[in-house]
Amino acid sequence: MSNEIKLRYGCNPQQAPARIYTNAGALPLKVLNGSPGYINLLDALNSWQLVHELKKATSLPAAASFKHVSPAGAAVGVPLSNVLKDVYFVNDCELTPLATAYARARGADRMSSFGDWAALSEPCDVATAKLLKREVSDGVIAPGFEPGALEILKEKKKGGYGVVEIDPDFTAPEMETREVFGITFEQKRNNIVIGKETLQNIVTENKNITDDAIRDLIIAQITLKYTQSNSVCFVHDGQVIGVGAGQQSRVHCTRLAAAKADKWFLRQHEAVLNLKFRDKIGRPDRDNAIDQFLEEYLSPAELFSWQENFLTAPDRLSADEKREWLNQMTNVSLGSDAFFPFRDNIDRAQQSGVKFIVQPGGSVRDDVVIDACNEYGMAMAYSKLRLFHH
Q1: Do 173 and 189 meet the contact criterion of CB atoms below 8 Å apart?
Q2: How far apart are CA 262 and CA 326, in angstroms?
Q3: How far is the C-alpha of 126 from the C-alpha of 132, rounded, in Å?
Q4: Per-residue pLDDT tens for 106-165?
């Protein structure tokens, strides 16, 4: 491994030259295929840390789908139901535990995952490589690649698919630096270990956090650790189902994450599963069509374009039908990277089935937020751990 990789450009084409390098020996990664760009490698290094920590915390294979330095999805290898296999378009695929983790990570928000960078906690196997090959994706980082898997990935994007191998034993220095506007910032790396210990201080009347919820709250916290702040994360059944990232207002984080979680659950509605698409409509176009099918309003132009995807124009779900379906969503876990300043976050979360919450605590209105959780019978733990990431 060398100590430098030259890049075509930085964040934008006008930002050249560009490179990644280290002054402390060789880089802990090597490019096996393609020419990953500046943003690709930011995604790769953030997503690798996320899945590496998820594997350590849960002892399950983990995967993430990243876009613009935040996760669109992250998951561990919990088996999929037949319905979710249909929703994620993997009912015809071999699903190893690692492939299952990536199917979940990619399936959380398929619109946002379009053109993603993937991360895998384990060496990429053939089943996972086949999943990656069929999706619109820019690249993948993993601690290794089975020979057959690497050959499959090398065929993707006319040979240009980014494949990066990371040294799983590499540990970053305790201090990290970055330069902004010619000024160097330095801080201790956020190397806090997240686990059950961060869920011990339960402040609500309901003290019952199930084993599945403990796993999901750990997933939420680790995901938030690598999500652009402010951020809120919804998790269910071992996978992220909605991330609200990079918002200036905490409630906007919650609304965004909840809206994505709602859409994830609505995709499992019988009306969506029974949609009849025209022949040769690919997965990205189906994702767009389903997203529009579930939108509250479409302009006449959007409606005409949307109907072109179907054999016959389907009747869209009414607001009441959606609400009736969403009322069945329950046992959702929520994590926040900083305290909730108002109860409006709890009120919105309740509408999307949230039952378990972890947040740092420390607001002057903590009592109001706790009261709101008690009204809804939620269990909330104070981690006393802020997880801002920029």
Answers
A1: yes
A2: 7
A3: 10
A4: 999 999 999 999 999 999 999 999 999 999 999 999 999 998 999 999 999 999 999 999
Domains of the chain, each with CATH number or no CATH: 4-166 (3.40.140.20), 175-266+326-382 (3.40.140.20), 270-316 (1.10.287)
**Geometric angle at alpha carbon 42, from 36 and 46, rounded to 5°:** 125
Written as one string, the DSSP assignment of 162-224 is EEEEE-TT----SEEEEEETTEEEEEE---PPPSGGGG--B-SS-----HHHHHHHHHHHHHH
Q: What are phi and psi of 168, to 5 degrees?
A: -70, -15
Q: What does the block give as tokens for 358?
A: 């972890």
Helices marked H in the chain: 38-58, 82-87, 97-107, 126-134, 147-154, 211-225, 250-266, 270-273, 283-293, 300-307, 319-326, 344-350, 366-376
Query: Reduced to 3 states, what is the DSSP secondary structure of residue 70?
Result: strand
What is the per-residue burial (b if ≥16 Cβ within 10 Å, else e) of 67-89? Answer: bebbbbbbbbbbebeeebbebbb
Catalytic residues: 67-68, 230, 390
- Location of structure tokens 């402390």: 24
Q: What's the N-to-C CA distance of the chain in angstroms?
A: 28
Radius of gyration of the chain (CA): 21
Following CA atoms 210, 212, 216, 218 in sequence, which dihedral angle do they give, to the nearest 10 degrees?
A: 70
Place of tokens 């999805």: 73
Pairing of the two strands 162-166 and 137-142: parallel
- Interatomic CA distance for residues 216 and 332, integer angstroms: 8
Asked if 73 and 107 touch (Cβ cutoff 8 Å), the reply is: yes
Closest CA to 286 of 296, 272, 297: 272
For residue 328, count other CB atoms closer than 10 A to its CB: 10
How does DSSP classify residue 156? G
| DSSP secondary structure letter of residue 313 | P
SS3 351: coil
Decide if pLDDT at 312 tops 90: no
Q: pLDDT (tens digit, 9 = 90+) per residue, 203-260?
A: 999 999 999 999 999 999 999 999 999 999 999 999 999 999 999 999 999 999 999 9
Residue of 88, 86, 63, 84 whose CA lies nearest to 73: 63
